[in-house]
Amino acid sequence: MEYTEIMVRYGELSTKGKNRRTFIDRLCGNAKKALHDFPELNFHPKRDRLHIVLNGADSQAVMTRLGLVFGIQSFSPSIRLERDMDLVRKTAVQMMTEQFRPGLTFKVNTRRSDHNFEMDTNEINADLGDTLLTALPELVVQVHNPEVTLRVEVRLDGIYLSSETILGAGGLPVGTAGRGMLMLSGGIDSPVAGYLAMKRGVDLQMVHFFSPPYTSEKALAKAKELTAKIAPYAGSLQFIEVPFTKIQEEIKNKVPEGYLMTVQRRMMLRITDRIRAMRRGLAIFNGESLGQVASQTMESMVAINDVTTTPILRPVLSLDKNEIIKIAKDIDTFDLSVMPFEDCCTIFAPPALKTRPNLDRTRHYETLIDVDGLIEAAIAGIQVSEIKPGEHYLVQDQAEINSLL
Ligand SMILES: Nc1ncnc2c1ncn2[C@@H]1O[C@H](COP(=O)(O)OP(=O)(O)OP(=O)(O)O)[C@@H](O)[C@H]1O
For the residues 392-402, what does the mean pLDDT come to? Predict the structure, then answer.
């Protein structure tokens, strides 16, 4: 079928009252970004639908991209016809023939925005129903829950036909919930946390700490490649890399082993919070899941959160590891996340770290390092890049991976 447009149904935003216009504009902008390399498309955002006119573009390729845009409930490829019922009948038969098998249940559902059209909705439903049954007698009409609904929309500029409804990504348009910083490691959890935050409309920027030479260029490249994997949901993503070597060395030299992790995390959080303020973000996101590892007990969160009043949001907090892995596989970050490159935290992780660090002691041990000076130096060394969907940073051959395993 040579489709002429994709009709996009908005998700939750239809309930958002007076913010509706902002939501629609943002969704339309995000869809344009996701489809930037299809210059022939025209976008027409309306109150209850977004119409994307294809002008010859491949409908399948366009729909694949649209499937990643948050804020879309569903979409349907449709075809615009002249307002000529003979043509509509002929095309309806073609459309149903493509999906036909004996016993297929269907109904015709007509909407009219032009109430002056010569036939009303019931007449059109009955007319097309008869036409289809005559052409394909083994079709079965079913009003409730048919397998195929042939949708007909009578508008001033033509009659639109569609018969497929494809589920969208759901959620809210990225950018409608404010800006946040994601603390992105190379692990499984934080990319999933980032995906979930974007699904709720957050305009997310990545903050990644790395510690050369203890961590290799490959570990940094892996974090960037993970960013490229989740970038399609946002159009593109800012990646902020923070040099962390000096801080880790200082902590390792001065702080007792049991408190290394807690003090490291406090420094990471302080720096992320500074970056957040500089970039006018509202919250910080991370990939912590309650009780999953030693640094993710509630006591540990108390000791780490102590350095800021900024909300720390944890999208995967109550998910089990298996549930997180399932999402990581769905969004295709899992295989990359499990690649065995050293992370800056694991490298300095002592064999026995405190799972229930004491807040007063944590504060005390921290006085042993030059907190402000170290933060200033790290901030001075940050580098920012923009990462686009599908970009590659990690070039590796299988033999090398095998040697690391
Ligand atoms: N190098 C890093 N740069 C930025 N954030 C980090 C880094 N390391 C850890 N984090 C943040 O701290 C969180 C907890 O990290 P930790 O290593 O304890 O847990 P994890 O379960 O392995 O998480 P992940 O799978 O995301 O690495 C991470 O989810 C991430 O948000």
Answer: 69
Residue 395 has a CB neighbour count (10 Å cut-off) of 9
Average of per-residue pLDDT values in the chain: 92
Nearest residue by C-alpha to atom 29 in ligand 1: 287
Rounded to the nearest angstrom, the distance between the alpha carbon of 185 and the centre of ligand 1 is 5
d(CA 144, CA 138): 18
Q: At what angle do helices 260-278 and 298-305 cross, to 10 degrees?
A: 50
**Is the minimum distance from the CB of 184 to ligand 1 under 6 angstroms?**
yes
Cα–Cα dist 7/162, whole Å: 9
Q: Answer yes or no: is the C-beta of 139 below 6 A from any ligand 1 atom.
A: no
Q: Is the CB of 292 under 6 A from ligand 1?
A: yes
Q: What are the structural domains, with CATH classification, of the chain?
A: 5-167 (3.30.2130.30), 179-402 (3.40.50.620)
Q: What is the pLDDT of residues 22-64, one digit of tens each?
A: 899 999 999 999 998 899 999 999 988 999 999 999 999 999 9
Per-residue tokens: 348: 């300095």
Q: Whose CA is nearest to atom 9 of ligand 1?
A: 185
Read off the tokens for 335. Answer: 């295989």
The reply to whether ligand 1 has any atom less than 6 angstroms from the CB of 288 is yes
Dist. CA 397–CA 10, nearest whole Å: 43
